Amino acid sequence: MSSAIGKAIDMILGLDPELMNILGTTAKLCLTSSVIALLIGVPLGVWLGSARFKGRGALVVINRTLMGMPPVVCGLLFYILFSGVGPFGKLKLLFTVTLMIAAQVVLITPIVIGNMESFVSGISEDLRESARGIGIGGMKRYLLLMNESLYHIFSTYLLAFARAIAEVGAVSMVGGAIAWKTNVMTTAIMQYTNRGNFSLGIALGIILMTISLVVNIVISLAQRRLSR
Fold this sequence. Notes:
Blueprint: H1 2-13, H2 17-50, H3 56-67, H4 71-82, H5 97-133, H6 138-148, H7 150-166, H8 169-175, H9 185-195, H10 198-227
């Protein structure tokens, strides 16, 4: 085991080509899907947290249900839709990074919406009263809510990114974990460990845990700033 750890460190320091390819694919997948989820989820979350209308409670419950969607269920849905016999099979997107991104967006967006909805619902009433007192309404009040939520938006993005980088079920099903094409850190760790290639698995595990540690430290600092 010590020799495997030593080889893993050498692979990291030596910028092993296969390791770099996996990291590049992971970065493309996670950055793209988390940004798209943020762009979709933040406006919807702010609106859902501040608006008052009939049926809002049902939408909140539906979104919270989607927040807990098992990744394998999402992967199965996309696999059925985009397989050769599915309605979108002609697009030939199965086992591509593009479809992996789409699957992750579906998984992450409800989390972004839910986090923003919970935060905004706690500040919207006080802000609504303040905005009414100075004659601000409509879109200006909405933009004011967005401005008051900036730190939370940043924290939510980091949470979405962390969720994306740790995902394995859906991306494995729709991506196929194809070497030099759709293999990402989580699928590669599982794949190479099963093959007995512990060195590459350990190297990826070290990098993955380091990224997770950095993200969680930044989230903690952002939450401290929010609580002041």
